[in-house]
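Forum > Structural Biology > Help requests

Title: Can anyone predict the 3D structure of Cellobiose phosphorylase?

Hi all, first post here. I have the sequence for Cellobiose phosphorylase but no way to get a structure on my laptop. I'd be grateful if someone could post the C-alpha cells.
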Amino acid sequence: MKFGHFSDTAREYVITTPRTPLPWINYLGSEAFFSLVSHTAGGYSFYKDAKLRRITRYRYNNVPADSNGRYYYIKDGDTVWNPGWQPTQTELDSYECRHGLGYSIITGKKNSLTAKLELFVPVGDNCEIDRLVLTNESDAPKSFTVFSYLEFCLWNAVDDSTNFQRNFSTGEVEVEGSTIYHKTEYRERRNHYALFTVNTPIDGFDTSRDAFLGAWRSNANPEVVENGRCTNSVAHGWAPVGVHQVNVTLQPGKSRSLIFVLGYIENPEDEKWAAPGVINKTRAQAMAARYATDAQVDAALARLHDHWNNLLSTYSVKSSDEKLDRMVNTWNQYQCMVTFNMSRSASYYESGTGRGMGFRDSCQDLLGFVHLIPARARERILDIAATQFPDGSAYHQYQPLTKKGNMDIGSGFNDDPLWLIAAVYAYLGETGDYSILDEPVDFDNDHSLAQPLLEHLRRSFGYLRTHKGPHGLPLIGRADWNDCLNLNCFSKEPGESFQTTGPSEGPVAESVFIAGMYVKYGNQFAEILDSTGHTDEAAAVRAEVAEMEHTVLTAGWDGKWFRRAYDAFGHVIGGEECEEGKIFIEPQGMCVMAGIGVDTGEAVTALQSVKDKLDTKYGIVLLQPAYTKYHLELGEISSYPPGYKENAGIFCHNNPWVSCAETVVGHGDRAFEIYKKTCPAYIEDISEIHRTEPYVYSQMVAGRDAATFGEAKNSWLTGTAAWTFVDVSQYILGIQPTLAGLKIDPCIPHEMDGFTLRRVWRGATYEIVVENPDHLEKGVKAMTVDGKPVSGNILSPVPAGSTVEVKVVMG
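Reply #1:
Sure, ran it for you. C-alpha cells for Cellobiose phosphorylase below:
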C-alpha cells in the first residue's frame, strides 16, 4: 500500500494523505541551522547542536503523535484548519506534501481556499523560511484570519524538559513591530537569541502559551484562534511561544503570500550590549530584510536548488532500473548528507539530547559523502581524530557544538580506532590530498599533545595490535560495532552469583568482527604507509595483518561460518555449539570484505550459511536463533524481545556488508538481491507494513521472530545510508576510488545489459559506459579511455577540469 509516490524529475516524494503510518519527515539545512519538518508541519529547529542550542520545543512520545511544530491556523468563518491537517485535524478538501532536497511544500485546501506552505533553510543563513501562499479559488471575496504558532525551547533541551522549577521563571520575550524576540537567558548568560517575524504588519500577537491555548486546552483547539483574536500577551517565565495574527481579505482568484522567518542570531563575543536583557537587533532586522519579498525568497530557493543539483552531479547513473537510478542519483546521497550533518543526534527517534556525534558513526558516514564535500570531510576527520586518546582509543561520542568528547559515555569500544583508518583512506582515495596526514591534531582536545594525523592512524592500529586476547583475536572492550554485545560485564561463570564489573576488570572477551576490520583496514593503513614512503613500517603492518588472517581462519572459523566472538570466560559466541545465537551477520560480511577465506573457500561457505540461516524476504537478520531468554554474560543483546534490534532484527546497516562481500566473490545476482530487500524504492508498495518513510533507509526492520515482521524503526540517521551507497556505487556498480587510481570493477546482476555513469573524481569528470553483452556478473574484459585501449582496470588521475570517456566491456 502506498501513501504517495516519487517524482523523479522534481526529485521529490509526494505524500497524498496526512494519515501516513508514522510521521514522514524531511531535513532542512546543511550548514549550521537545521529544522526537522514532518509531512504535517511538525518538528523542531536548532542551531548546530540539538541539545545545547534547541530553538523550538518538541515532545517525543506525544499523543497524538507529532503534535508540536510550526503551525499556521486559518480561521475562515466558523471553520478552523491547517494546511498540513495537524494539529486541528480538520478534514481537508485536498492535501499534498512534497518533500524535496532541503525543502518541503505542504498544500491544503478547504472551502475554496488553498494554502501552500513552503519551508526551507536558505544556503548561508541561520534561519528557516516559511512562505504561506493563500489563494481564493471561490467566486466571492473571502475574509479570514491566519495565526502562526511555534513554541520556544529554553536552549538546553535537557534542562528545558527537566528543570521546571527554574525554567518556569526564565522565559523572556520582546515584541517589536512584527518581530517576536526569544531572549530567554540573554541577560549575562548568553549572547544569542532567536526571532520569529513576518513580512507584514500584524493585527495581534501572543507570546504566552497559556494565553494562546487557554486553560486545559491543547494546540488542537487554541482559545485565541477560536475567538478569532490575539490577546497581545507577553510571556514572563512559563512557556514562551511565537504567535502572529494577520487578517486577510482576498478577492476571487487572488493570492497573497506571508513570509515568516524563524532565525538564530549570535553576536560576536567582544560585542557588548547596552544593559542586561537588552539585545542588539541590528542583525535580526537585517535577516528579516533579506527575505521580505517573494522575489528574495524565490532567489533563495533557486540558490538552494542549485546547491543540491551541483552536489549530486558528482555521481549519477543511468540504467534500465528506474528505482536503482532514483536511489543512487538522489535519495541515497541526500540521506548521506543528512547523516553527515546529524550523525545520530537528532531525528524523530534520537531526541538530540544525548548521543551527539559518534566516533565510529561519523567515520562510517564519511564513506558516503566524501565525494560530495571533500573539504568538509577533511574538517570532520580532524574533528574526530582530536577526540582520540594518546593510546589510540577514543571517546565514543562528542558534542557537535563544542567538539569535545562526551565523558558521560567515555571510551572502550574497541572497533572505534580502526574506523578512523577507514575514513582517512576514503578521503585520500577520493582527493589524493596527503597533506592531511601532516596536520597536527590534538589528542583528547589537548593542544599540548598534538601530533600529525598519520601518528593518530599509527596509534589506532597500534591499539588493536597491543590489545589482543587469549586466542590472538582483538579484545572487544565494552563492545564493538554491536553496542549491545557486552561480553566483559561479568566476572563470574554462568550459573554462579554474577557480579557486575567495569570493562577494565578482566576484559578478555574477543571479537572476530574486529579481527575482520583489523585485516581490511590494516591493509589500507599499509597502503597509506607505502604511499608516504614508510615502506618498512608498511611491511610490518602487513605481517601483523597476515597473522590475524591466520588467526581468524583458525580460532575464528566454526566450520561453516565465522564465529562472532569469545566471551569473558572463553566461550564461543556465534558457533554451532551455541543453543541460541549460533550465527551472526557481522563477521560474515566484514571478514569476506577483508578477503579472508576468499582463496581457500571459507568465504563462499560463510555467505551460503548467511543465505541459508539468516535471510528473510525483508532482509538478513542479525543472528539466529534469536535469544529467547536473558543471558547475563552477553549483556544487553538478549534484553530485546526476539526479532527486534540486535536480537535477530534486520539491521539494515550491516546488510550492505554482506552485499559487498558477495561482490568480492563475484556474485552479482545475490549482491543485488540483498541490496533491493532493504532499499526504500523497492519496498514502497508495502509502506503499511514498513511504516517509515519510503524514500530513506531505516536503522532496522523487525525480524522473522518478531510479532511485527517487516516493520521498520529509526529512520534517517543510520550508517545504512553510507554503507548502502558504498555498496551500490563502489561494489555493485564498481567505481571505486583507491590510492592507486579509480578502479572500475562492476559486479551486477547478470540480466543487466550495462549502464552509463558520470563520476567526478579529483576534479575530473569520468563519463563511463559499461556494457555486459554476455550477461555476466563480474569481470572486465576490455577497457578504453578516450577511445584508446588500456591494460588493467585502474585509471590514473588526470588534470582537474578534464573530461574522460571510458568504455568498459564485461567479460
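Residues 210 and 216 are 9 Å apart (CA to CA). The domain at 735-810 is CATH 2.60.420.10 (Maltose phosphorylase, domain 3).
Shout if anything looks off.
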